[in-house]
């Protein structure tokens, strides 16, 4: 039931782009994306709702393919502050989130 | 908006002891969630409340774990007869609508069972 994320880790130089994928085996109401820096709590980035509505971050975009139960997070022109572990959270129903396996992103100067 | 507060930040306890953690959500949020996170893993769902009602508890959670949210305000998570496998970061989050809105997480309580 836990969504699977890929890749597990990404290393970038500042200014490069990255895509993080999240795949679920269940039909989804929504997909959330969070970033967690070492020793800190996860921070909400974005939510994608069934039907196409999207709420979230100005500099980060995402897509949600409802039929395939997949979502992708797009990080463009990455900054040092983007470093951290990214988790997708999937909602198969209108209650709790199930978090994915995580993708560790490191951005170097 | 003061965010989600958790207390204590760190707890070291001996195996077999009981521990209790507290979470104060954002005041206007009616949903409150408890998650557990171990190193290198995503947060694992434990239980959640809508107002004072506990709506779901993970089937993976043993009977040693109990949570309350009296009057729909703060919440407590108690672990009885702690075991070394309980060592983890315990995260609390709140939201105003559930799946339609993002969660705001607290800084967590790190539990170490020795």
Oligomer: heterodimer
What's the Cα radius of gyration of chain A?
Answer: 13 Å
Beta percentage of chain A is over 45%
For the sheet with most strands of chain A, the description reads: 7 strands, mixed
Q: Can you give the mean pLDDT of chain B?
A: 92
Structural class by secondary-structure content of chain A: mainly beta
- Gap from first CA to last CA of chain B: 36 Å
H and E order of chain A: EEEEEEEEEEE
What is the overall pLDDT average of chain A?
90
Rg of chain B (C-alpha, Å): 13 Å
> In terms of per-residue confidence, which ranges of chain A show pLDDT below 50 for 5 or more consecutive residues?
none
What are the secondary-structure elements of chain B, in order, as H or E?
EEEEEEEEEEE
Structural class of chain B: mainly beta
- The dominant shape of chain A is globular
Per DSSP E runs of 2 or more residues, the count of β-strands of chain A stands at 11
Query: Which spans of chain B have pLDDT < 50 for at least 5 consecutive residues?
Result: none
Helical stretch tally of chain B: 0
* Biggest interface pair, counts: A-B, 29 and 23 residues
Terminal residue distance of chain A = 37 Å
Can you walk through the features of this model?
The complex is a heterodimer of chains A (about 110) and B (about 110). With about 110 residues, chain A is mostly beta strands. Chain A has no helices and eleven strands. Chain A has strands at about 5, 10-15, 20-25, 30-35, 45-50, 55, 60-65, 70-75, 85-90, 100, 105-109. Chain A is globular. By secondary structure, chain B is mainly β. In chain B, strands 2, 4, 5, 6, 9, 10 and 11 form a seven-stranded mixed beta sheet that branches. In chain B, strands 1-3-8-7 form a four-stranded antiparallel beta sheet, with no helix packed on it. The model of chain B has no long low-confidence stretch (mean pLDDT about 90).
